[in-house]
Amino acid sequence: MSYKLNAEIREEIGKNKAKKIRKENEIPAIIYERNKKSIPLKVDSIEFMKVYREAGTSNLVDLNLGNENMPVIIKSIQKDPIKGNVIHVDFQKLDMKEKIKVEVPIILHNRDKIKKQPSVLMQMIENIEIECLPSDIPEAIEINVEDLDFNEPIKVKDLDIINNPNLRVITDHDTTICVLNRPVDYKEEEEEEIEGSEPELVKDDKE
Element (H or E) spanning 130, and its range? Predict the structure, then answer.
């Protein structure tokens, strides 16, 4: 699936020009392409955030530059350290016939329906790195954790994506994605520590 985003070529370059663009509710951006000169752009901030929330940094984005459409991914974003809003975007132009390395997000479904209770679900990694053609990039890797059992973690090698001939999983196949643990009763631990501790000897100052 691809997402559509409008953009304009940015003729004005520099910090002051970038500030002016941001005041107009737009975001300065740039497109990188292998062995070619980068292209400065600007995108509407509201439109970009809508696409970014859905596409993330792994899904294909169809960037409309007036008379030209470019297949890109959102390579990275820069945020204001105080306000937290996006102040710059890096796009990477894709060759649809050339493989690319991307990180695909992991989504755990049915967290609130886990049968083994009480329990604590721990997610160890948020993304998996793969290599494939842009048209084969999955939106996300979805895992149903409803039937997860204690001390039987789900690892990368357990995923169906491992057997997909159209892509290569780069992340170590033995990497743990998530595991279900029994909750720790801290109160019981404290009682055991108190019961097992030896009394402290207090010396009499008169001795």
Answer: strand 127-132
